[in-house]
Structures
1.
Amino acid sequence: MTAELHSFRHRLTASLGALALVVGGVTVAVEVASAPPAAAVDNGLARTPQMGFNNWNSTHCRSEFNESMVEGIADAFVAQGLKDVGYTYVNIDDCWALPNRDASGNLVPDPARFPHGIKAVADYVHAKGLKFGLYSSAGTKTCDTQGFPGGLGHERQDAELWASWGVDYLKYDNCNNTGADARQRYKAMGDALRATGRPILYSICEWGSNQPWNWAAGTGNSWRTTGDISDSWSSMIGIAHQNQPLAPYAGPGGWNDPDMLEVGNGGMTDTEYRTHFSLWSQMAAPLLIGSDLRNPSAATLAILKNTDVIAVDQDPLGRQGTVVSSSGGLVVMSKPLADGGRSVTLTNENTSARTVATTVDALGIGGASSYALKDLWSKQTSSTTSAISASVPAHGTVMYRVTPGAPVPPPTGPNQLGDLPWTSAVNGWGPVERNRSNGEQAAGDGRTLTIDGTTYAKGLGTHAASDITYYLGGGCRSLNVDVGVDDESTAGGSVVFRIYRDQTLVADSGLRTASDPPAHLAADLRGGGKLRLVVTDGGDGITYDHADWAAPQLACGQGPSAGTHALSDLAWSSAAGGWGPVERDRSNGEQAAGDGKLLTVGTTTYAKGLGTHAASDITYYLGGTCTAFKAGAGVDDEVGAKGSVVFQVYRDGVLAADSGKVTGSDGAKAIGADVSGANELRLVVTDAGDGVDYDHADWLDPQLTCD
């Protein structure tokens, strides 16, 4: 997907419906996600995506769809080992009932197809340790042209009947719906199912027509995001493209459903079927087998029973994978896993073999010294420090499980988070960016971080919903950061920034919009093993939510010991001089280290101090343990009356003292600052406005007092 086409998502509203895009040579309709996800329905079901079977893709309404076939599928689940790897539901689709209800208004099973009735079939399935599912439609009739009765207006009656039969799953279609409001129609059946007291998984099948990702989580356990799949590469990959952008709306109890599996039906190659199964698992989609399992090929069973791939789909963290790069038909997806690792799919949508590549940083899992890779199809294992790539056949997918090794040591001293390796990073659109705004596509496509006109050289550019984790090891004290919606979000954007120490919320920005200035957050991290930076949508939909963590300063380790210290005896964090290096206890000689003289201002010499030349900038890490800084400030006598400078003292980036203009004709001036609780001390010398000439600036007998 090109950046230009991707940006159209932001300019559409819910009323515009679907957008036709050409992606990887395939024209697809992309629905626009426009509101935050609803809370998952509280029925205790589908904590991971449902797995099972549905007959429609292999039989439709043909005569072979009958009681014997359904019971044979249940037998196959056990005999073929499918039950053992997680497939649970044996579901039947349309055409199971007679075209008319009975005199009491009840649905009647077709006696030719189901001579012993539906309850008997459900009992047979249950006896195998499996669960049974049924089909209806939220309309006056179901979708088959023969016109079987739908559930509209009969919700309570039908739900009670199904519960009495032992139904465990309902697929509820959208045909012949009379134009009635979809939310109300689907809610009515959801309420009726819950009222039965029987746990019935509720699969909403309204084809994405009314953007169910915005509302269906409060009603059902899954919702179709697309029209019907067919057994072809173009149909399958087009549906994947439609479902991929909807990752923020899926989670335990409620899943995006890109329709059933076609694996084994014969319309695609085994390579394409492996891509199909890989992408559905990477997208945390329901895995409902759509082929006849009574006589499957060995290749079909090998795909459907790949426990490594199934484990990705069923991962208890419940995150849908996201696209981290897509260019020229080469698509990389990353899915966070509960063990702290990632699954990654490298998909080649082209008609010839290509190399598909990514890095651990792009996957959002940087921060370890090495990573174990397991190819989930070949089962080969390897390791990497960063790069992940593979030669991928036409229409193929290579799928890895990526597991980090030992984390890098925890940070010490003052650190900008934009320069540190994270443990994991998950972003709503595109990768998290270091020291750039979020560009929504490939890494590095953002711009300078800018909030309400203020630019920042350091920080993290994200897009809601995002979650970034850093390993602290219990050795950090605090985080100070400015937060806000980046100015590139010209048409809106509203987010909430939250900082967690381990599982404890320690700072919350409240709602921040594109019109707000930067807000400052300060978080106490003492004793924390982990730092989490989380951005959530502000309630108006995940759109234009370009959220910046600007100048995030992390303070770790111990500052100077208790007592009063000569600053020139302490190690600085950084030191930069205008001409030559900063000197300890010597004036600035402008060339090599140690070429200065005794510090002398107004004929008084000083044994201790720092010799600099404007413009200079020296930082010290205090670790929050110091209280006061004081020094003399003057232009060294070695330049005579020449030279003019300004001395400035900063505590945690805030100006705490300013000497005003000091020249070579002036004596030393006293300068000091309260640095209580500060993590960083900065000593800055600037030119006073007459050019950087003979600006030999001395910090005289600088002293730091610490607790």
Note: Residues 1-36 have pLDDT under 50 and may be disordered.
2.
Amino acid sequence: MRAPLSWLREYVDLPAGETGRDVAAKLIAAGLEVETVERLGTGITGPLVVGQVLAIEELTGFKKPIRYCQVDVGDANGTGEPQNIVCGATNFAVGDKVVVILPGGVLPGDFRIGARKTYGRLSEGMICSASELGMSDDHDGIIVLPPEHEVGTDAIELLELVDEVLDIAVTPDRGYCLSMRGVAREAATAYGLPLRDPALLDVPVPNEHGHPVEIEDRRGCDRFTARTVTGVRPDARSPIWLQRRLQKAGMRPISLAVDITNYVMLELGQPLHAYDRSRVNGAIGVRRARPGEKLTTLDGTKRELHPEDLVITDDSGPIGLAGVMGGADTEIADAREATGTSEIVIEAAHFDPVSIARTARRHKLSSEASRRFERGVDPQATSAAAQRTVDLLVLLAGGTAEAGVTEIVSPSGPHTIRMRADHPDRVAGVAYGRETVARRLQDVGCDVYGTDELTVTVPSWRPDLTDPNDLAEEVMRLEGYEALPSTLPRLPSGRGLTERQRLRRRVGRALAGAGYVEAPNYPFVGDAAFDRLGLEPDDPRRRTVRLVNPLSDEEPALRTTLLPGLLAALRRNDGRGSHDLALFETGLVFRPTGCETAAVRLPVDRRPTDEELAALTAALPAQPRRAAVVLAGAREQAGWWGKGRPATWADAVEAARTVAREAGVELALEADRHAPWHPGRCAALYAGVDGERTLVGHAGELHPRVIKAMQLPARTCAMEIDLDLLERASSGAPQAPHVSTFPVATQDVALVVDASVPAAEVESALREGAGELLESLRLFDVFTGEQLGEGKKSLAYALRFRAPDRTLTAEEATAAREAAVAAAVGRTGAVLRGA
């Protein structure tokens, strides 16, 4: 919300010396977010005056139109003689009043004006456009003033060029501050001054003679006021003061009728709409859209309506999206048309905020009106806003207000909240006292009754005040957040990180130490991501939790796997030139079970009971914590030290082992077919959980179709593993290894097995047979060739033996090696190579 300081002073008698920065400091202390204070007109110095064009000579021979003008500026030039000015604009004629800056003047940007020869003529000044004066970004032509302004008048004062504008970022709970009325109320409270409420107007009582209105959906529209003004001059233009206030507030002047509705919206916070009565057929109605209905809105877009859209109708069908944008068929005719609008119907209504927000998002049509309705508009302001609009149309357009007044109101009582008088004291940790609490709530506009137990009636313009804590917050912000004591929370002794938190930190450190970079992602996903991953229609990962109010329609659900976000990050970085990538993420996924119950609303005035917390937990989906990695490009860089190595599926498997080691878990691997991995390069990861062999994740190379669909680098690999299952499989924190002081005995063994036998199975057999003396085992060579025979491979292992209490003899090491080989022969059918 942009609030001009000059406009704000109409409602609050601010001290004469207060600057925009002073007012901003007061509003910030009261809890508003004033982002900037823009000082308008600081770079302008005169003489800048009103001039009248006396003659125009068209200069030829140039690439663009050039005009040599004689302009009467009165006595502003000290001589009374006309000024000769060269101008390239063509939107004015002889007799028009324009804005002229004379030699010696300075325009914004330190643009100094002097007499100079250009296009073969001497130009003594400049005829100004709105953009050159810093009024707007309009470059269409120079400013043409209404004829009633006298020649030689100071244009700096006339155009209100010098001002300060407060740019306020209005949070969703302070929708009333999207109006000068709301900002003025906050300023009056901050300074302790009275407020001249612009909504306090004499409004005629409703009668049966107004324009007919029929409301079918009273829940979507609980209040509707209609007023009619006749005899409006179609050629009437918005006065300068009205245009300037709109421009300072960030809106573009359009036509008098539209400008007035926008002005009243900015002033009172109530969006309005004006209809050309000659284009409205029958009664104005409010209802939900029907299947198949369409509407062309004022922006020229033909929209297909949704059954949940709230629409304004007449006998011909929808004529507007309620609270969002009007329809083109009932638009106020432009004054330049042959038959302008002379009869105007004013609509001032109150619509359901949720309905308006969903309609605006559904149609991707955020407007000034929808921004206000979805944040909450004062329902009691509709009559005053309609009356203010009628008054301005009568005053500025020469219209006549019809006696008929239509007002439909759904019965509703004021919202009251019961609160202990010391509740703000207990929340803030400050002793405010009952008198201070009551006074501050009255400053907000509440009516307060009671002594120890307060009954607070909330004002109609504050729909965000619903609970005692909301009232406590109002007291705290108005008394000053700086008055709140700074106290550190007292933590119970003897508590630290949980085992789950420790595991998560160990996993993150281990993956970072292995060369991976953490890349957290938003937990949102859409069906398109599952399609690109190649998931089957009945894949459990497609069963998602959908958000009621998603940030993006393309990602309306919570993720069931970490891979879409990580792969998108990998693709994005690869597209920006980083081709050797290793990324990881740990986070929650959301897996609905179908057994979730309806969510309960927890109280805010006390601690929830254990039963209430259990009921809330039962409404949540399962949220296991996962760890995932993705790799592409080189895993080891090439250099003077030797050749590099590309990332392969084995690196993804090793990442899973790295994670499992931090939990003290030994993984078992099996070949598997599981999207989105390549069926021939996918490993299923198993661990013993609660005494049972349990699938905990997958690792390998992605399927080529997935790589193509997601535009990933060739041979991209990935791994995803369940940290919660690993924690359950863990026997506790991993123990540091015992460092023996005795030497190691190394034995190598090469075994020939069928190509279909996994190396992991051979390794498991060797470990089992070697016994307790085996310290480590490493596969250092895989060989295939004609000398082995078709369908055979050779696996070479290095076995390290060590005893904790003695030096092993050669016989002991050999016996352990032979036992390991025997176990491998028995389980896998291996043959000792060379035997």
Note: The two ends are 87 Å apart (CA to CA).
3.
Amino acid sequence: MNRKIILLLSLVSSSYFFAQSIEGKVTDMQNKPAPETEVLITKADTKFSAITDENGMFKIPLKEDGNYILEIIKDGVKTNTENITVKGNSTKDIQLKEAPVEQKLEGVTLTARKKLFERKVDRLVFNVENSVASQGIDAVEALAKTPMVRATDDAISIAGKSNVAIMINDRLLNLNGQELINYLKTIRSDDILKIEVITTPPAKYEAEGKSGLINIILKKNSSLGWNGSLQTSGSYYGDRPATSTRSGASFNYQGEKLSITSNLSIGDNYWENRSYNYLTGTTDNNYWKTNSTSNNNYRYKGGGLKGEYKINDKNLIGINYNYSFSNPLETGESRANIFDKDGSLDVSSNYSNRNRRNVHNASAFYDVKLDSLGSKLSVTANMMLNNSNARNFYNTITSDVVSTFANPISKYRIYSAQADLEKTFGKVKTEGGLKYTKIKNDSEFNFFTIEDGQNILNPKRTNTFFYNEQNYAAYASTSFKINDKWDAKAGLRYEYTTLEGISMNDDSSAKIKYGKFFPTAYISYKPNENNAFSLNYSRRISRPYFGNLNPFKFYVSEFEYSTGNPYLLPSFSDNLEFGYVVHNNFNVTLYYNRTKDDWDRIQVVEGKSKYSIVKNFFNEDQAGINISYNYNKLKWLESNIFLNGYYSKTKSYDPTAIAAPKGYSANFNLDNNFFLNKSKSLTLMLGLWSNLPNRDGNTYYFANASVYTGMKLNLMEKKLLINLYVNDLLNTNRNKGIEYYPNYDVEYYNKGITRNIYLSVTYKFGNNNVKGATKEVKFEESSRAGGASN
């Protein structure tokens, strides 16, 4: 029975026995009604309470006149405390206070604090709505302020994890890469209730990836109606010849039964990169030195539509559809100087690549509530279609010119179906489910030599590759509350995979079958409101991207190419974490993970030819600690600090690559928000991030750092949002490292146009309380397509 109905019945019955009462209205800082706010009246050991209605009104019957303590609790936070005297029927209106309050009872000081971080049994929760600095921005910027998470306009990652998947309201987004970033930029932080960081995903989720999950929980629909928003943003690169722009629109509708959300976006991103790759012999005097420049104009457009229909209180159906189209143009040139026992050779090359890519994602779901305890059955179906057609032109210049044309065509299809059952038995909650996934990738690589303006097919470099994969999964898990302080959760997932890769050019094939169990276990201990501990374990698998399995040879020049490996195997990792949260804003996590049969791309020299190939070649152990702290003691400042320190050790079992030296490393983030007015609508932002030297596989990475600053302005009651940033203020962001091999080392360097001025403007109209359709469907396999777009 709804708690409001219970409250109504209690008020009616109590009127016969209680002759005294207190009633009134609770308003917020802007004098607007504060619904669903708890009003608590205490006298000795006796307590009376009420929840305000949608107009902020409350009424509490009392047994007798006298002196009482009145407290106001909003969203779990105590905002007001005062002593009152009641005589007969009293009236009292209350306005919420902004800061936590202190109340002394019998020599003990009780302080109500805003809960920014919460440690749950299997995840860390960041309550976005309680962070002033996280308001008035988009979801990507909100993720950047989340503990353990690094988010930029290029990628999102979790400390100690190689990749991450994003969920909205417990359903995985069927997007990756730039499409994912574009979608997250359509979500405003004001619509986000909390962000959950799941570093060791439970058995319910795919065991794929040495990764974590980020679950963005949106605020519930609180009213009927509609709203929309318009966004535009751009980056200016100073003395560069182009800018990057993005424009978008979103619309939400909420009815009694039907909810609809749609969005459109279009963009034109510009990217420039300068790099070198210096291969130097350690057992001889050979070397291969390459200097390159490249320019990328990434043009895209896309949109999405989500719809949900509430059949009744127990049944919900919905569909999701996303489409994206991109046709990036990449041009570049390089100069290489090659020296070996036969002498030296100077090589120049240039290229122009255009890739047209269409991606369709479609999903459907059906949820049915089975009882009043929270039991539920969910059935989902997913489909992803990707068509990629590239036109790549290369010119290699030595004493003469060799011109070539490559036409790689990729068509991959991913289908999945899943059923999940949640059943509650008293204090025990159980989950179980089945899933089937089919992945099919048909690729053609047509290679031509250009002579007298004619494209002449080169059969030796032309190939067709077929890839088929099927995954069968089943899982079961249970979670239960041992007592008021202890919670536990455990699960087991089994996945069986069959895959086959066929290369038509060399008439070779690879067939692999394997089945593995993936256990997960969690336990948490919360002795009081200010301390929470957790311990968890999980086993994971990382399957190769499609592009890394494809044996096509992608030529940069007549002397250089990259290729995939159809015999590439998955890697497995074991992960152990211990977490501690104190005072709800200070988080410490100790972690250890061991990865077996990990892979990376290595460089191989054969005479005057050089190529790169992906291989399984190393095992890695990593142990570390990360610390997150939110400082909000001052009204004019909120700071988020994150520090991750770790020790890693790699062992190579392949003689073609040498493991990077073992050692310590760390990375650091600091975000400061200075509120320049009382309403906190004008904010100055200043932050930095830094990576100390680190290692992975056979690569040693040099230190890296970047500083940003900017202003944030909220106008028209947060309907107009303006952000102005200067990214990489000191122009220090670059990638530099050394790869180690038995007979040579490779030093590399990449520097893009990371320093830029970024301006974004968003205007919201309509009913801000309407969220529209918010569910997303799990489709973890779509992320593996990230390597298949080339």
Note: Helices lie at 3-14, 139-144, 177-184, 546-549.
4.
Amino acid sequence: MRISVVGGGPAGLYFAVLAKQLGPDHEITVWERNAPDDTFGFGVVFSDETLGGIEHADAAVHEAMSREFARWDDIDVHYRDTVSTSGGHGFAAMSRKRLLAILQQRCREMGIDVRFRSIAPDPAELAASADLVVAADGVNSAVRTAFADSFRPAVETRQCRYIWLGTDLVFDAFKFYVLETPHGIMQVHGYPYGRDGSTFILEMHEDVWQRAFGPIAATGLGPGESDEKSIELIRELCGDIFDGHQLLANNSKWATFGTVRCESWVHDNVVLLGDAAHTAHFSIGSGTKLAMEDALALAACLHEQPSVPEALAAYEEERRPVVASTQRAAQASLEWFENLAQYTHQEPEQFAFNLLTRSRRVTYDNLKLRDREFAASLDQWFADSLGTSVAPPMFQPVRIGSLELPNRIVVSPMDMYSAVDGVPGEFHLVHLGSKALGGAGMVMTEMICVSAEGRITPGCPGLYTAEQESAWQRIVEFVHRETPAKIGLQLGHSGRKGSTKLMWEGIDDPLPEGNWEVCAPSALPYSPNNQTPRELSVAELAEIRDQFVAAAEAAARAGFDLLELHCAHGYLLSSFLSPLTNQRTDSYGGSPENRLRFPLEVFDAVRAAWPADRPLTVRISATDWFEGGNDADEAVAIAQAFAEHGAAAIDVSTGQVVSEEQPKFGRSYQTPYADRIRNEVGRRYGTAVIAVGAISSYDDVNSLILAGRADLCALGRTHLFNPQWTLHAAAAQEYPMAWPKQWAAGKRPPQTGRTDGPEPRLDLVRTGGHQTAHARWRPEEA
């Protein structure tokens, strides 16, 4: 087979070695535009998992690499004159130049034709003359550009600038420095790569860069040239770090990271490899790792499959999920550093934990496995900050306004569609009662409608008749009598999403008969299948406001501990907030302030009617998941407006505002919105923030709470699967939580496995037989 490889970096060279090893008759040519000893950057990082694959595939390459490795277990977070050290992380790094030299030597030994200082022929010409073309030509891939119609690439650039440097200071750990400069917050990523040097990356938000480096940064630098004026200023800013050591440049210039994603990695007999196909932010150290794993997979698929097309299809099928997972983690890490300034109010202990768990691959439980001593110190700090005893973060008490909860678990509002004429029945008693018995600090009702016309479906409960009030009072009294849990009521109006079938009959589908008229801020149907709503007049707005007030007064009489105003998911109050659904031209539409007007009027009226000693909270959709709708910036402004009007908590959900939405689902996918609102709004106004959305393990809950990304976590489907989830989570963590006396005989820690949903990810764990030992790498160990 004739194989042309475009690009002589680690991905291209390593693929060539493996392909030749598995197919000695292959004729392989590698095209590399640079000289053999040209390389840009300094060190590259590998996980133990990747190194295991390299060792299995080519022991000679692995042995040569092993002689070069700098290995270390620690991460040091330098913040506010405090160094927080966490061990057990298991890194290996080496000089990029030495890695290339090893791979080049291996290519020579195997008779592979590597053509340095040679620009590859036109991609179409290569594809016509070879059986396979492997495009390993990096982030600016010419091959990818030539066949862009097939690969359909997209590059997302973000809001930070960074510069890649080196130093002859040999760090003894992976170092993160947070620098508070006159220009703003900057961050350093540093790690050793050998006996004589370390990688040193300086990164900052674009605004900070403009103030600090914008006036002096060089432009139009050629290949191999470095931005010396900027580097001189960096020496001044970071002098305390270097302590007399040198700061080194190598084609070092400012860049903005671009995340490359391609809808396809294959065009006929052409395949993308490494950065040509995908990139992952350097803060999780996965660029070279992913590239060499790609090479491993592609070579194996070519060997295992009977034809090139089948091999390329198998390669993409195998690698795409792995890459997607890594890119999600990298994106979370990238965005964390992009928004680092919002965390600089945190104490050093919390900040360090927040940084370590930023990508969600390291978690609270995972950190205990890596470094139990460090994890225990975090638990102690959190307890001390609250004036309580040590406990898993989820079991620390919390206040929402004047209401104290025994733990931070909320049973999220979940529509059950099981009421008759708006009256909750035996099902609701068992449903909510069982969740309260299950240990959660608070259970929330589903959305309770303020009128018959405000129901979503005929099965939705309400609070607009005496019979409904009496039925709710029975449920509240059971929760208060039999459990320590609090119970909250979510109050809302369906708006344009009303008059639809029960969920299991067709979610959001209109009723076949017996429809009632729906209303909205504007005459825009939720979907082409739904009714066109009546645009509400000012007089009708006042009437609906009064319906909210009457329902709130009934909720108070029924004894509810908390009231939540439903301003999310495209229901009436939510539809006033979004520019996609509110196109009014009066004082209730147009500007963000006008769109907030009616929801705030309802909030103020309800707050006046609701007992002063009971909290009033709000649920919002923090993004509409659609272009032109509300997103994170608008969500912060909306949350702030409600906080200023006295909201005791903001319950942060997303979407369901327009049927055309394009949500990005994933584990804890809504929590970044709660995180931002908590750190920008909640701490300023003393407003609690509740995170919700695909949170299913107690490990995730503990991680979110301890990192300061939320004050409480609301779990819905998890409690449908296991109504006693909180009790079981306590048992699994050996936390002495009181069980209902009737169930006490069944209380015991799980004998095997876990009972709290999906296992937490335990990536990159390397204990070396000493999980908590802070074994630092030293130069003499190289």
Note: The mean pLDDT is 92.
